[in-house]
Amino acid sequence: MNVSDQLQRPLRDLRISVTDRCNFRCHYCMPADIFGPDYEFLKKNMLLSFEEITRLAQLFQKTSGIKKIRLTGGEPLMRRDLPDLVQLLSKIDHIEDIAMTTNGSLLPKYAEQLKAAGLHRVTISLDTLEDERFKKINGRDVSVSTVLKGVQAAREAGLGIKMNMVVQKGVNDQDILPMARYFRKQGIIIRFIEYMDVGNTNGWKMDDVFPKKAIIERIHEEMPIEPIEPNYKGEVATRYRYKGSDEEIGIISSVTDAFCSTCNRARLSAEGKLFTCLFSSKGHDLRGPMRNGADDDEMKEIIEGIWINRNDRYSQERTANTKRTSKVEMSHIGG
Prior knowledge:
By secondary structure, the chain is α/β, with parallel strands linked by helices. The chain is built from eleven helices and twelve strands. The protein has a twelve-stranded mixed beta sheet with strand order 7-8-9-6-5-4-3-2-1-10-11-12.
């Protein structure tokens, strides 16, 4: 089960988008002027069923030995009965970790069910603690307290928690220190993410990137930090700890400090396309052959063929002038 791509990278982490819908309209992901009332989302019959998702996850495990599954969206909790899917996935042999990325708004309703079904941890997105700024970012007038209630619900349910903050120069970079202070006191790891050029609808410009180096300098000036070793090969975030403590933060920096060489992640979209890079132009259809009757051996051969031919390293090749005619949207395959 040691399937490697053209750059000798194994496949160990499968990210599964369960829906392309979201109850937020964050401007860097699903800007409201594009994803408006008339936007046509995927119809139900186009979405992979829970049984289809589970079958594919089992096939990925048998083909490549994946150990981790992360549920994404859109907002994954917009998918009805999501705890049922978690329960199915939790029964797959050799899967060591099931996680979910969420905006946190629906966790008060679902956190206990998710934990009982077998979810291990959540990553919750929050880009500022300042209410008016957050309402402007999320495009739905949702208050910070809504997300913090989700954080508390996850904590009470016994789920592991990390926070994600997308940092944009001139938008919320002034919130780096308040966020670091707050979540340090809460005992929750926060990861600062450079604003990335995923998709085509967010108007990304290199000028909007607040780089890793500047994030480190800003935090270090008030709360000295030092680098620490990754938890495992291929970890996305560069880890730092506050000096003299075990408290840590992470920085995800695919723009200024690419980590393509150790990328071991694949992404399955809500309609069953396999994307081998977050910045992919197109995916490989798995739903079609599966619904047309391909047996497990045939599906495993398809999956293996896609991965062993993979040579993506978009972030390493990126320049400030990079232009692609098409890139899959973040809302379609998750982060």
